[in-house]
Prior knowledge:
The structure holds 3 protein chains of 3 kinds. Chain A is mainly α. Chain A is 74% helix and 0% strand.
Amino acid sequence: MSDVALAAGGAVRPVTTETRAVRRALVAAAVVFLALFLVLPLAAVFAEAFRAGLAGYLAAIREPDALAAIRLTLLVAAIACPANLVFGLAAAWAVAKFEFRGKSLLVTLIDLPFSISPVISGLVYVLLFGAQGLLGPWLKAHGIEIIFAVPGIVLATIFVTLPFVARELIPLMQEQGSGDEEAALSLGAGGWKVFFLVTLPNVKWALLYGVLLCNARAMGEFGAVSVVSGHIRSLTNTMPLQVEILYNEYNFAAAFAVASLLAGLALVTLVLKSVLEWRYGHALSAAGRH
Amino acid sequence: MQIRIQNLRKDFAATAALRDVSLEVRSGELIALLGPSGSGKTTLLRLIAGLERPTHGRIFFGEEDASSLSVQERNVGFVFQHYALFRHMSVLDNIGFGLRVRPRARRPSRNAIRARALELLDLVQLSGLEERFPSQLSGGQRQRVALARALAIEPRVLLLDEPFGALDAKVRKDLRRWLRDIHDRTGHTTVFVTHDQDEALELADRVVVMSNGRIDQVGTADEIYEQPASPAVFSFIGESSVLPVQVKRGWIYLDDRALDLRVDCPDGPAELYLRPHDIDVVESHAGAIPGIVSAVRRQGGIRRLELETGARRTRVEVAIPADQTRSFAGRVSLRPRRWRVYPLNGGGLQSGGDQAGA
Amino acid sequence: MTSALGLPLRRPSVLPGFGLALGFTLVYLGLVVLVPLAALVLKTAGLGWAGFWALATDPRTLSALRLSFGTALAAAAINLVFGLLVAWVLVRYDFPGRRLVDAMIDLPFALPTAVAGIALASLYAPNGPIGALAAMAGLRIAFTPLGIVVALTFVSLPFVVRTIQPVLEEIDRELEEAAATLGAGRLATLRRVILPTLVPAMLTGFALALARAVGEYGSVIFIAGNIPYVSEIAPLLIVIRLEEFHYQAATALACDMLAVSFALLLAINLVQAWSRGRFGHV
Lengths: 290, 358, 282
């Protein structure tokens, strides 16, 4: 037969990949690394949370301070996300649809909060609004509390989550160009109509994606919020801060119970994010995805 | 270097990309693999290169059985459709790559590699661009660098996959002539893949026409054009019109009308293949093909008639010199100068004739 | 619209809303980000050069900065190697659970840092499962710089993977085939063709991971033990100084760190500009 020589040759791998053994070894190394660094900590959260049993878990979550922390966390996210959504839309409209001087500087500034330590993000508000801060005396004279109060927490959260929506929308809207909007204008639609009927539907999935990430960060932010909160129980503790307090009091079961709620939020976020990427990947910007 | 391909077969999952292909490429020959997309021509080229492994069959380079050699061992120069230049390397480093990655024992010195690369750059007429990066070159220039890179390893055979496919028409024509020129100077056995019949017929010593994973015909441009071995080749090469006919005792019938065309082929339904410029418009007579002119268009130096013929009103195109100024309207008669008849269910049998009716 | 200098401030467009959108963007950005940052700069300026220098070079401050940098560099380096591996495996190989693994990569983005912090602390503490194993090998992880590296590796893990992944996906298989036809073995192809193509993405990912790790706070403080001069990171020292109401020291340290952040940001932009200029795209 003519393919005697091919008995060996036929099993040869394509030229653009490695031998099966190498492939398996690399996959194994990657999976072990990820299991060690990602899966194990996540599993630890839930394992520790349920160490005291379901009853202990529920009791820890129903504790008044914990409930107050959950309420505050939801409130903060409910303010920060819409605020940054509106900002993201405005910034993306200006940056993606128009050419103007200083645009690249503006884009860099929008990304700035990502490259600043969260602790510094909190610190700058303390320096501005705190008792010794620039505006401190004036605020005190007018009886306005920002630092060690809810407004400070909201502001610090807005600061750290500011880029999320904008950085999803800007590259996508740049890729899409202005053709659709110009067509709509030529057909007689007004500015707001164009925005709501043409632009918004074109970017809705990217918008959702950005809000999803923004929300995850807003609910989970620790460093910045920690600096401005003052850690007043039932008043200025968000869930992550409550986790810290409980942990430092060696109340591990309760700390992990609250933490497990946040971990659950992270998992839901990941699932939704993956669904968005798989189903609507084409409607997200390649440059903005991560 | 002669290439001999024996009973090559390649299956991708459940589909056969290549079915039992045999071919001999003579040493120093420039040969074209021509066919529509999905005909298996690129698969055949990649099998020769060793980029794919055949399901069955063998490939010989000269007397050596290359079937079990890896792509690295085969020493073929392969030029990719989209050039596949290494964009982090300068032009010179791209060309010298194949020499630099040789095992130490066979690796030329740094200076020798540089000298060889510069020499090849000169051959492809790009001297002075050695320090450029691929992103700084035009498409045609990139293709030349890709060829120089393939030639640098002194390949046993040169393989080109749609070498001009990504270029615009003008650059294509220039590069075509230039490739022929390089081939004549270097004398490499060269196989290139194309879906452009002009390119294949103009450039190649011989053309391999492929469809559905099979070779339909191998021949020179004249042979392919004048004596197409199958209806597929006839209709793929050049323009054609097809008339459904009957063969009865060696005569061709359109509907019930005997044409004065004789063939040596068994009775039964058949197809009459015609080319537009091989048909004369004649005075009406008994053996001619009757037709009704439906449109006349002027196209450069020729005039193109569209006609309907026969009971089924089959469309036939005729090209005549534009200086024939008589009016073509209504009923006319056609007489083919060259034509071919392929029996509908006659297997591989075909017949045809030149100067029929003479 | 034309500026006083005659340079067009913006190119004319038929689309409406430029003034409103840009105006809102600038006001919002100014109020939320720029004015507070300006407060930091003003406070620092109020220290005077001598005052700033004394605070910025305080031994405890320097030790904290050194630790933050050393551990962040180590974490970014670990992620450079494993991030490349993970990206390669995810893009090139098909294996059961690949999509799940791919989705999990973003866990550190999604998991609040405090949660990660206590989870890592419980795992790596001497009585935790991994910590106990390490202790048997005579290795202490928690409450040492090593623990900080573990936490920083966790939080900066996605950066390298996510910057390399899209670049790797775009690499044309033809490049590798071309290298093979030219006689290059698989290893030579990886080293000479693929790796150089990934260098800009690797550098960018490394810098992003480093920037994130240097400023990280929440995930570190639980595992670090926070011993001054040993395992006290710079962001924590800022918090400590604030709690001592020693605002000047906090400000000076924050300025040090901001300078570093900006340097990294600049480095990332330079890498990308260089890569665009040379290879046609990032």
